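stage 2 :: seqdesign
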């Protein structure tokens, strides 16, 4: 990034100057020059985004749920990383789900109408060239890139567009019941502070979370895209394991990240590149440890598409391409548990069924190996297997890696599976390096296998079936990739 921004705008209003910038001011002659001589870049005849018909249907469902109420859904603002640099922006899931727009500072407002609601998307317009904003402001288009005009946005998203800078004042004057999705835009919340209640706003957030439980056709397609790119990212990693051995887990992290950025928007969450005993740390994202031949690599990673749908896949791979006897024993137990879990995913099944099925298999093995005293029913009732299984066997997946998290317990964990739901099935066994209750040969071994499962009308479809799971197939796959 250049080390100076602009100092002041022209005549209309000053734009904050960066301290220690090299230019003390703007001459009248330069200001006049920068106002003119620019081509018309307005885009016309744009095609609506691919999900426009789906976002319209989602807004209609939201409108039907809250008749007669003003609904405000912000995208969020840039967050400072340090000094004058920001984190990459990611729009709020609620806003992206309802609009398809992914730019900062946007706000969707549904105004009650005679029938239903009238939707408006509030956005930052093109940078002002008359007052110099486009080249003097740190967020001007010359610095950060071109934005769509409001007219272009209307064509793309199928929603009337207005200048978001005028919205806070308008919201302050609003009357009637209002709900806002909190936590994304402080200025919007401040404008509504005397018009909203936490309880009513939470109802809006919960509804939007539960609306995402069942994916539409577009969403299922995006999830498959995310998984397909993730499969290629795992292949990339296997091909460079020798370089990871020469460096660290960070080589694995960087390798997968390259695939995510080339084919998608980003990684969907911090990649877990856990080699050796690090595999026993569930969310090992430091990724700074050694990669050694003879150890296992637990890679938990997912590509996020340009529409913000993410994959979430885990494979536990032998760094040298071959499982040892004890590694295979533990891996095969996790594989069998996952097979039982996946088989339990079908329409009409309880959400908990796949977790219970997988946990039973793992518990049977732990009892069989003499690591915990049976019978199996007693162990499950007391939850004693959790010392080594640790976590739940899966979660909903979508625009968040742990999607629909605000949904009510009765519609999620205690709910029933329906066609269009997408969830992970990810049992694991983790024997900590300092666990004196297990034989030494078990210690430091962690195994998780995770796939993304779409509930279909007649059962389920494994979106990540392109990656081998069975231990012998994993070994053959790795050998083929290494040439």
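stage 2 :: out
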């Amino acid at each position: 990034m250049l080390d100076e921004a602009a100092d002041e705008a022209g005549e209309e209003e000053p734009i904050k100057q960066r301290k220690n910038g090299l230019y003390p001011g703007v001459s009248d002659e330069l200001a006049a020059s920068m106002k003119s001589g620019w081509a018309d870049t307005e885009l016309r005849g744009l095609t609506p985004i691919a999900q426009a018909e789906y976002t319209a249907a989602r807004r209609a469902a939201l409108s039907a749920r809250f008749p007669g109420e003003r609904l405000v859904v912000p995208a969020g603002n840039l967050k400072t990383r340090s000094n004058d640099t920001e984190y990459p922006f990611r729009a709020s899931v609620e806003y992206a789900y309802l609009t398809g727009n992914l730019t900062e500072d946007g706000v969707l407002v549904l105004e009650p109408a005679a029938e239903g609601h009238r939707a408006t998307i509030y956005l930052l317009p093109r940078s002002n060239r008359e007052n110099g904003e486009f080249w003097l402001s740190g967020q001007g288009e010359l610095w950060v890139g071109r934005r769509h005009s409001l007219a272009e946005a209307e064509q793309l998203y199928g929603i009337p567009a207005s200048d978001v800078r005028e919205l806070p004042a308008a919201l302050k004057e609003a009357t009637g019941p209002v709900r806002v999705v909190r936590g994304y835009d402080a200025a919007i919340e401040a404008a509504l502070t005397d018009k909203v209640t936490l309880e009513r706003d939470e109802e809006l957030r919960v509804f939007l979370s539960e609306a995402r439980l069942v994916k539409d056709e577009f969403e299922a397609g995006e999830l498959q895209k995310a998984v397909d790119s993730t499969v290629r990212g795992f292949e990339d990693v296997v091909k460079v394991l020798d370089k990871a051995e020469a460096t660290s887990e960070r080589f694995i992290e960087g390798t997968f990240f390259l695939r995510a950025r080339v084919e998608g928007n980003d990684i969907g969450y911090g990649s877990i590149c856990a080699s050796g005993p690090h595999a026993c740390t569930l969310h090992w994202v430091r990724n700074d440890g050694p990669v050694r031949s003879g150890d296992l690599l637990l890679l938990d990673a997912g590509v996020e598409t340009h529409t913000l749908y993410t994959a979430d896949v885990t494979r536990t791979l032998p760094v040298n391409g071959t499982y040892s006897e004890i590694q295979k024993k533990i891996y095969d137990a996790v594989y069998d548990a996952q097979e039982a879990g996946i088989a339990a995913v079908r329409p009409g099944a309880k959400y908990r069924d796949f977790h219970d099925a997988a946990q039973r298999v793992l518990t049977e093995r732990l009892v069989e190996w003499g690591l915990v005293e049976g019978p199996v029913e007693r162990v499950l009732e007391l939850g004693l297997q959790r010392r080594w299984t640790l976590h739940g066997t899966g979660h909903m997946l979508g625009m968040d890696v742990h999607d629909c998290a605000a949904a009510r317990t009765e519609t999620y964990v205690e709910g029933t599976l329906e066609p269009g739901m997408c969830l992970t099935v990810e049992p694991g066994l983790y024997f900590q390096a300092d666990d004196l209750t297990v034989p030494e040969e078990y210690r430091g071994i962690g195994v998780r296998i995770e796939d993304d499962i779409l509930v279909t009308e007649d059962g389920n479809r494994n979106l990540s079936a392109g990656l081998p799971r069975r231990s012998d197939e994993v070994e053959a796959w790795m050998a083929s990739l290494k040439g």
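stage 3 :: structure notes
- The chain has two domains: 42-212, 217-482.
- The longest strand covers residues 117-123.
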